[in-house]
Write a structure and sequence with these properties.
Elements: H1 39-55, H2 57-60, H3 72-90, E1 98-99, E2 108-109, H4 117-122, H5 124-130, H6 132-157, H7 162-173, H8 176-181, H9 186-189, H10 193-206, H11 223-240, H12 244-264, H13 266-271, H14 273-300, H15 334-341, H16 356-368, H17 373-389, E3 395-396, E4 399-400, H18 408-411, H19 425-453, H20 458-471
Antiparallel strand pairs: 1-2, 3-4
Helix pairs in contact: 1-6, 1-7, 3-5, 3-6, 5-6, 6-7, 6-10, 7-19, 10-11, 10-12, 10-14, 11-12, 11-14, 12-17, 16-19, 17-19, 19-20
Length: 472
């Protein structure tokens, strides 16, 4: 679903190996897939950037004085965060984690708020030169293009073809969830790091895909899990300083995906247990070393928060929202737009939409390629996240069914569980849907190539083509 602009003024071989029908990746190992970025890669990345500019063109028409419509309070707050960080750097110091310049005289603990510390610091020169609104426009544009590019890059690392990875990157980077999040929720819309975090978790748990290090010197012993663990720890730290909530849900998603994938490769997963523990421990130590002080200030410093400021089971996905497009999507009806507008969480939290075409395509892919452990893992993880996004009690057509308890009903009572808004699992759900779609496209193309290469009379080949296209 292509979004419309909603703004206006105001190494080593893989350890997990299976027969061809159970391979982790869709295509056969091909050293050419590990080549340096070529013209096709740059073309895809340029396309993402141009698409992001098209979506945000109304902001770029006057970036210094225009902001997103529909959520002015959050937009103004994020502009303050950008200016605060830039002013701190201009005075030769990093922004303080406890600031009294807002909510004076008590102040605020920035770690308990969506303060965008890392992006605010990186974009401080833009803020100082052109203003906070320009920085937010840059951030929004990079959120779309960067999220798409991250998904594309990760899938290429796992030997997905250029065309399938490019489509998956667009599905994720320009998903309805990110489009709606761009209405003032800049910390969620900048979803560049989640694909990279899950990718690092997979490399630790199962090793690189077959052929991924064909042109490089293999890493032996503990080097691969330790090095990847360091990278994972730094990525998690970076995401903590973008959006702690997204960091937590991304790690949860990666853990679920690895655990479910291991059920399809349980012998190899058992052999990888020690390297996985080493890599995970390394990541935890790096995260503690780089983000530990900030987390200590959050939980043990001044102005700490007890409980959650949000109503429990309020910001949850409406079950009908998965197939009801809002007015911010290019293809919608007046009826669907009115239904979406009535969502109680309002437009920035209307994140559920996937659409019947994508849902049907993914369901067909799961049925057709069920024997592939990677497809089963994507499907199972996506279903779990979809159920989580419904909260503790399902919301259907605006009516909460409080007599029905879903799994999140017990999870939200755990420490920090109540601070996670369930509907925001949709961002990671869209990423899983995009990755599954890319895998399914490559598997379908491979199956078509195999069938067309088989000898036989014209009638049998025609019947085979019919079956194959039906499966595709």
């Amino acid at each position: 679903m292509w979004p419309s602009a909603p703004w206006k003024a105001r190494t080593q071989p893989a350890v997990l190996t299976e027969p061809a029908d159970h391979a982790l990746v869709a295509a056969d190992a091909d050293p050419g897939l590990c080549r340096s970025p070529g013209w096709s890669t740059w073309l895809v990345l340029t396309g993402y950037l141009l698409a992001a500019l098209v979506v945000t063109w109304r902001l770029w028409a006057d970036p210094a004085s225009r902001t997103v419509a529909g959520n002015p309070d959050d937009a103004d707050l994020f502009a303050w965060y950008m200016r605060y960080a830039a002013s701190s750097l201009a005075h030769g110091q990093l922004p303080s984690l406890v600031a009294s310049a807002l909510n004076a005289p008590s102040g605020i603990n920035l770690m308990w708020n969506s303060s965008l510390l890392l992006p605010s610091i990186l974009l401080a020169p833009v803020t100082l030169l052109f203003g906070a609104q320009v920085s937010l426009t840059v951030l929004t544009t990079l959120g779309f293009a960067g999220s798409a590019a991250a998904m594309f890059w990760v899938l290429r690392r796992w030997q997905v073809s250029d065309s399938a990875a490019a489509l998956a990157g667009a599905v994720y980077g320009f998903s309805p969830a990110l489009l709606q999040s761009a209405l003032g929720h800049y910390d969620l819309q900048l979803a560049v790091l989640p694909p990279l975090i899950v990718d690092a978790m997979l490399w630790i748990a199962i090793g690189p895909p077959s052929g991924a290090a064909a042109s490089r010197r293999p890493l032996t012993g503990w080097r691969q899990p330790v090095r990847t663990g360091i990278a994972l720890g730094l990525l998690v730290t970076a995401e903590i300083f973008v959006s702690e909530e997204l960091a937590l849900t991304t790690v949860l998603t990666g853990t679920l995906l690895v655990a479910i994938l291991a059920t399809g490769f349980w012998r190899q997963a058992r052999d990888r247990l020690t390297p996985t523990v080493v890599g995970a421990a390394t990541a935890a130590l790096v995260t503690a070393a780089t983000a530990g002080w900030a987390l200590w200030v959050q939980f043990f410093g001044p102005l700490t928060q007890a409980g959650t400021p949000f109503l429990r089971d309020f910001y949850v996905n409406d079950l009908t929202g998965f197939v009801t497009p809002s007015s911010f999507l290019l293809f919608h009806t007046s009826a669907s737009a009115a239904t979406a507008a009535a969502y109680r969480g309002q437009a920035p939290e209307y994140l559920a939409y996937l659409g019947w075409p994508l849902i049907i395509a993914l369901a067909a892919a799961v049925v057709t390629f069920w024997l592939r452990p990677v497809i089963r893992a994507f499907a199972a993880t996506a279903i779990i996240l979809a159920v989580f996004s419904l909260g503790g009690d399902p919301l259907v057509s605006g009516v909460a069914h409080v007599t029905v308890d879903l799994p999140w009903h017990w999870i939200e009572s755990l420490p920090l569980g109540g601070s996670v808004l369930p509907d925001r699992f949709s961002i990671l759900l869209d990423g899983l849907a995009a990755a599954a779609l890319a895998q399914a496209l490559d598997l379908t193309r491979r199956r078509l190539a195999e069938h067309f290469s088989q000898p036989g009379d014209r009638a049998s080949r025609a019947r085979m083509r019919t079956r194959t296209w039906t499966a595709a």
